[in-house]
Design goal:
Shape: globular
Helix content: 25-40%
Largest sheet: 8 strands, mixed
Mean pLDDT: 92
Number of strands: 18
Strand order of the largest sheet: 6-12-13-18-17-16-15-14
Radius of gyration: 27 Å
Structural class: alpha+beta
Strand content: 25-35%
Number of helices: 13
RNA sequence: UGCCGCAUAGCUCAGUCGGUAGAGCAGCUGACUGUUAAUCAGCGGGUCAUAGGUUCGAGUCCUAUUGCGGCAGCCA
């Protein structure tokens, strides 16, 4: 056996008459007098291969092993299908069963399992229609992300996953330590002093690669990261994970306008890539998960994003006549209900909001001339809310230092970040995009736990 | 972290006024010569999340705990 085999995806385009072998897992078997139909999947495409087993080809004992979940190789002939539903099928001449799956205990069935139940068997859910499709789209989008940036001369950079800088300010962090003992009572801290721990100081899992990506952009010009990120927030919602994948481009010689252009181009291109390359999967999502999916995605690809300043958005919300649970007022952050109304009701497609009050945004965002707002942008999308957050960065040393002091942040910790402004500072901008939220948007899946193979949330890190 | 909801067969669920457990699917046995969420007939399958309480009697009412989910905050 060799990895060079014909995937089931490729068998569908073969001429009838070809002698082939098909490897995969049995989805279902339907018996009729004289012949059996086996649906076989190898995950290479949404559609299953229909295998015809005529009476007498296999002995009764072998046929009985072809149950849902069993792993097999069928040998046979590609033939035109006489029935509707598929153009070609495999007429079996022989089979090898690699692994049986006891039907009495195999937990997957062909019908009606809830996503909540499937999360408990996350190691098997990939074999179902929905999760096979989710993971294929996830793969294609990953590829499209790299294509997008590489085609524009952006260099892929790897920022650290373990960091001793707790200064990003993007959220609660996981502590990293080797200072762990284990005895019959359980786990204990061996030494409470971080100075004697592995790194000689407290260390954490990264919450963002942005600050490090900025250093790399100040030398490589246009860069991007695409890697895992960790947030220890106790947030249990359908759109938060403790471990998620983030895409963070950073561009030298770029303003907020350029940043917005990149964000819009990016979303349109990768969504269009999925439309062109994951057709069967997206058809399934459109049929079974989110009935407006294809319409929405096509609309997003073909129409310009609405761009509003924060101040304009506040005015629109104040005049909306809507009875919001939380009041709208300049200077406070928009609530989920406000963002949803803007993007879902008012505009009906993605909205980019810019120039937020400096008090509700991070220290590194570039201050506007008015002294009140900063060059920040959020891209809001219907169904999922905030999908991108970005800004033009403050490149002026004095302004940045003043802001750090104003916010009471430890200036010493930012010595290397401030060096970027001391030596060859450049106007620059970037954004962060949660990859799982992008997948939710493209697939229509409602819960972020269902677009990553193994999800981590407060209280759950199984598998 | 706060608020709300849910927990009954392997899965998805019903269970009326508090009166002693039901269906579909899955599984098993069989029928059927083209099925594709196959169909048809039959069979087996339950500590009603856990622990207390109220009651003659609790799946049903009350309390606590655990698990899961939704929303909010935080954000991506």
């Amino acid at each position: 056996m060799d990895y060079r085999r014909t995937y089931i995806r490729d068998l569908f385009s073969m001429e009838p008459g070809n002698e082939v072998s098909a490897f995969g897992w049995v989805k279902t078997r339907r018996d009729s007098k004289g012949l059996s139909f086996v649906q076989l999947s190898d995950g290479s495409t949404f559609n299953d291969l229909q295998v015809i087993v005529e009476a007498g080809v296999l002995d009764e004992a072998t046929l009985k092993k072809l149950t849902t979940g069993a792993c097999v190789r069928f040998d046979g002939l590609i033939v035109e299908s006489p029935a509707a539903g598929q153009a070609v099928e495999l007429k079996a001449s022989g089979v090898e069963v690699f692994g049986e799956a006891d039907p009495a205990t195999y937990p997957l069935q062909k019908k009606g399992a809830s996503f909540e139940f499937l999360r408990e068997i996350a190691h098997l859910r990939v074999r179902g229609n929905t999760f096979g499709a989710v993971y294929r789209v996830r793969n294609r989008l990953s590829y499209a992300v790299h294509n997008f940036f590489q085609a524009r001369g952006f260099q892929y950079v790897h920022t650290p996953i373990v960091t001793t800088s707790d200064a990003e300010g993007a959220g609660a962090m996981f502590y990293v330590s080797t200072n762990l003992g284990h005895d019959e009572k359980g786990y204990t801290l061996k030494n409470p002093n971080p100075a004697e721990d592995f790194f000689g100081k407290p260390a954490f899992l990264t919450v963002s690669g942005q600050l490090e990506a900025e250093t790399l952009a100040m030398g490589l010009t246009n860069v991007y990261t695409f890697g895992p990120t960790f947030r220890a927030e106790n947030s249990s919602t359908s759109r938060h994970l403790a471990e998620f994948w983030m895409i963070e481009p950073e561009m030298a010689f770029c303003s907020l306008e350029g940043d917005m252009n990149l964000a819009e181009e990016f979303l349109k291109e990768v969504i269009n890539d999925a439309l062109e390359n994951c057709g069967a999967d997206l058809d399934f999502f459109n049929k079974r998960i989110e009935p407006t999916l294809l319409e929405t995605l096509t609309h997003v690809v073909n129409s310009p994003f609405e761009r509003l300043t924060y101040t304009e958005a506040i005015k629109i919300l104040e005049n909306s006549g809507e009875n919001f649970e939380y009041p709208v007022a300049w200077g406070t952050d928009l609530q989920s209900e406000h963002e949803r109304w803007l993007t879902e009701v008012k505009v009906g497609r993605p909205v980019i909001l810019t120039d937020y009050p400096k008090e509700i945004k991070a220290f590194y965002m570039r201050q506007n001339e008015d002294g009140k707002t900063v060059r920040a942008m959020d891209v809001l999308a219907p169904r999922i809310g905030e999908i991108i957050g970005g800004s033009q960065r403050e490149e002026r040393l004095d302004v940045l230092e003043a802001r750090i002091e104003e916010m009471g942040l430890p200036k010493e910790a930012y010595w290397w970040y401030l060096d970027l402004r001391r030596f060859g500072s450049a106007p620059h901008a970037g954004f962060g995009l949660g990859f799982e939220r992008l997948i939710m948007y493209v697939t229509g899946m409602k819960n972020i736990r269902d677009v990553i193979p193994y999800y981590r949330v407060p209280g759950n890190a199984d598998f």
